[in-house]
Structures are given as C-alpha cells and as structure tokens.
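Internal ticket - ligand job 456, pyridoxal-5'-phosphate:
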Amino acid sequence: MNGEQLLEKYLEKTKTSAKLAQEARRVMPGGDTHGHFYNPPYHITIDHGNGCYLYDVDGNAYIDCVNAYFVLIHGHCFPPIVESLAEQIKRGTGFGMPTEPQILFAQHLCERVPSLEEVRFVSSGSEATAMAIRAARAFTGKRKIMKVDGGYHGTHNIGELNSFGGALGRGELKPMPEIGTNGSEINDVILFPFNEPERLKEIVLKYSEDIAALIIEPMIIPSGAIPPEPGYLETVRDMTEELGIVLIFDEVVTLPFYYGGLQEYYGITPDLTTMGKGIGGGLPIGAWGGKREIMELWNPEKGEDAVVMVSTSGGNPLTMAAGLTAMKQLTHEVIERRNSLGDRLRDGMNQVFSNIGIHGHISGLANAFWIHWSDKPVRDPYAVGEAMSQANENIRNLLFLGMRYRGVYLFPTPSPFGNISTVLQEKDIDLIINAFSETLTDIKSVIAEECPNLLQ
Ligand SMILES: Cc1ncc(COP(=O)(O)O)c(C=O)c1O
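stdout (structure tokens):
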C-alpha cells in the first residue's frame, strides 16, 4: 500500500468522524476543545472505551496509547474505579468540605511519595504548578523562577513559556511569551538547558539571589520522553539546596511511573511536588505538596497571614474516591508488570527501525514511549525538534495515519508518542509492534523518495 492508498483507506474507515468533524468545526475552534494536538485530516470522534481499547463512532477499535493524555492509568472503565464512583455518586458529588475519601487519599499520597508531608488538591495540573510556584515565592519572598527551555508545566503564562521543544532552538535561552499573554512573565523566568549540569551551575550562580524556585520534570515527558543523564538531578538538588532555592518536581505526568513517582526511582527528594492526571483515577485533578513548613502557608487557621486559594472543585469527593482507588490498585507488582511491557514495546519498536533499515529510535521509560526520526540519543527538548525535522510533514502524517488505520491510537502530534495502561497484555504490545512494522514497510518507498536521509 502506498501513501495515497493508505490515506484513501483511512478516509473510508472514518466517514462518520469526518462528518462529525465538519459539524464540530462550526462550534469549536478546530472541532475540539481539548488542546492543541492535532493531525490532519480531522479528529476522529470517540464513542466509548473499554479496557485498553477505544471505539470510534464508525465502530473502529484502537489500542489506546493516549489514555486521555496519561490520565487513565488502568485503562477505560476499570471495574474497581467504576464501583467506587457508583458508591460515591449515591452519597453526593460535592460539598466544599472535607470528606473521608479526601483525608484517606491525602494520607495515601503522603505515605507513598517521599517528598510529601502535606498536600492540597485542585482540579488540574496547571493549577498545581501555578500554586507550587506561588508557594515558592511566598516562602522565599523572591520572584524569579527557573525552568527548562522547552519544558511544559501547564496552561499558564510561566508553564507555557518556551514549551514543547523551546521557542528559539539550541543555545538561545531567551524567554518568548506565548501569543496573547502580557509578556511580563519573561522578566520573571530564567531558562536553562536540560541535561547540562555545568550550564545549570553557571546560570544558577549568576541569578541565585533572586530565584524563588526551580521547576523541572524529573524526566521530560511532553517535550520528548527524555530521561535525565546520570548525576544530573543530583546536581539540580545540590545547587538548589545550597542556595535556598525551592526545588519543585513537576510529576503531573510521571508520578504513576513508579510507586513513589520518579523522585523515588531516582532517589532525589524535591521540596515540592506537583501532581495531576493519572492520580485522579480518570477524573480531573491536580495536587501539590511537600515540606510542611511551605505547605502551612495555606493554613487558614493562621488567619490573615494565610495565602489565599479557593478551588471550587478541588478535592471533590468523586475525584478523591476514584483517585484513591486508582492509586491503591497501582501496586509495586502492577507497576513492575506494566513497566516490563513498556520495555518490551520500546525494544520491539527499536528493533523494527533497524529491521526495516530506517534511522529512528524510541525513547522513554516505564509506561511512556516517543518515536524519534533519528537514531542519535535525544538528550534535550531541542533534539526532539531536530529529529522531527529529519522527516517531512507527509511522512510524519503517514506514520500516524498508518498506525491509526491498523488500530493503534497515538498522540496526534507531528512527533508521535504514547503511553500504556496497566491492563494491556503481551499480545496487545505485539500488536502495536506489528502495526509499527507494517506501517514503516508501507511508507518506506515514500521515505526513499521524499526523505532518503532516513534510510540506513
Ligand atoms: C508536565 C506537565 N505539567 C503540568 C501539566 C498541566 O496539567 P493539566 O493539563 O491537568 O492542567 C501537564 C499537562 O500536560 C504536563 O504535561
């Protein structure tokens, strides 16, 4: 099958989605309300999900490698979560007051995550990172925030600044405000490149007197699934500790990767941790927590000295019940099994690149994987864009459509990535690897014609 035939077959299989996408575009920009990830020709519309499968309105089934953007750590309609939600719905969906599930969930998180002495709940990861930044400023009395050039921490002015691969490319380190923001945040943010300890030391020492916090994902996820090199996080921790800078680990995505998050896996304890996505059992959530002396800033028992924060749905009992169940079900054994399936997937897909003779590799850890059009290791977010540009738009899109056509749902981005939930079996992993192999075989002739640099 060549590229044109693949597109034709895909259009044939997704006719109802095409029709609904037309209607959706009339009432929502781009036909969706979720975010900015999109691959042409249109979004498919989902009917329902079950286990590790998604079903679209045309009746096609897909192995779900998006899991609602890392939210569904146990796949769709996981029976223990469905039961706990059904139970809680009967008791009420919101009170704006503490409930037992909330207390039990806070206790559970504080027991399993090394840095957490106290925690607070909000409704999204973006609120969590915004709050952690505010906590650091309130605690230190300083303004400036250090962040990785190319890192993403949520949909607010600082979280989005120079996100998803960096605004200007390698070496520039210049904050560029997102369109529509007022731009004042560029005076507050100091950028540093990921995985470069010596550069980090230079930059921290230059600005140390003004820095409130350094925020970093212990492994970069939305900008490339890039693990830290050995010793890097140790340097980050040592420098921040020495200079009294609040270290925030953004574990909004990564907390469920290991029992106590990546901080436990790498053995580095930050001052504050932000969480979200998977810890909510499929419902909207954000949380941040850490050292008691910082978290107590929010204690309303302190009267006027307390930091103001109102989160209408933060800690709502439905999310608390679902989240507590999801995390309790995420045992050491379950994590180990899922992560070894993750290894099988990454190894298998890497093998496909070399079997078919195309330059490329799969990065990631635990349940996350990312497809790069380059076999050079990707060690920072700039390298993700550099690898992506090795393939033209047509080839990138054909890979994505070929995987969808064969029943694998990846993140709809020009540089596709994914994650697996705990309910996949070995046969599902092999199905993804086969789909990858068939798709690359299909499009090899297009690659040879349009991007021969990718042939080994
Ligand atoms: C690392 C990281 N931090 C924060 C967020 C923001 O979370 P939310 O979309 O729930 O606001 C995201 C979302 O993708 C993320 O990837």
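Auto-summary: Residues 268 and 357 are 39 Å apart (CA to CA). The pocket of pyridoxal-5'-phosphate is lined by residues 124-126, 129, 152-155, 217, 221-222, 250, 252-253, 276-277, 286 (CB under 6 Å).
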